[in-house]
Amino acid sequence: MNRTEFIIATAIILFAAFMLGWFASWLVHRLSRVTRAEMGELESMAQQLHEAEEQRDRAVDALETREADLVARLSRTEAELRARQAQLRESLTEVEELRDYIDRKLGRKG
Fold first, then answer.
1. What is the DSSP letter of 1?
2. Three-state DSSP class for 81?
3. CA 90 – CA 65 distance, rounded (Å)
4. Domain that holds residue 44
5. Looking at the structure, do residues 48 and 93 belong to the same domain, yes or no?
6. Is residue 109 left, alpha or beta, with left meaning phi > 0 and alpha meaning psi from -120 to 50?
7. Considering its fold, how many domains does the chain have in total?
8. How many alpha carbons lie under 13 Å from residue 21 in its C-beta half-sphere?
9. Could you read off the pLDDT tens digit of each residue along the chain, which spans 110 residues?
10. Do 109 and 58 reside in the same domain of the chain?
């Protein structure tokens, strides 16, 4: 094989490799291309996802609002409980004082 034949053979092999690569690229592009129906479906799914995210955001906001209301209500209830407990302690102290007073007046020892 002389030099000219070698160059021609190499050129043919390179051209064949180029054509094979181009054909493979075209085939992959044809097989992976998105149709209009698929695009419509993707747009529909994107819209549904967007709506679902909005609903989730609204639900989270409602939950946070409800939680804040419940925390405030719990704080008020705890404050009322502490106040009532203090009143109860005062009442018990007063009852004990009255019992002691009655016992002293009636001459009981206790």
1. -
2. helix
3. 38
4. 38-110
5. yes
6. beta
7. 2
8. 6
9. 799 999 999 999 999 999 999 999 999 988 887 777 788 888 999 999 999 999 999 999 999 999 999 999 999 999 999 999 999 999 999 999 999 999 888 887 65
10. yes
